[in-house]
Amino acid sequence: MTISTAIYSSILGLWRTWRIESGSMGVLYRHNTPIDLLAAGTHRFWDPRHELRLEIYDLKDPLWRFEQIDWLCTEHPEWLKDKVQLVETAVNEVAWIRYNGKIHDLLAPQTRQLYWHGYVKVTVERVDMNTNLEVSAKLMRELRNRGNTLPLSILSVDVPSYAQGVLTINNADIRLLSAGNYGFYRAGAETLAYVSVDLREQSLDISGQEILTADKVALRLNVGVTWKVSDVLTSHRQLVKPAEHLYREVQFALRQVVGTRSLDSLLEDKNSLDREVLAVVVDKLLTQGISITRVGVKDIILPGDMKAILTKVVEAEKAAMANVIRRREETAATRSLLNTAKVMEDNPVALRLKELETLEKITDKIGNISVYGGLEGVLNNLVKLKPSH
Question: What are phi and psi of 185, to 5 degrees?
Answer without folding.
Answer: -75, 115
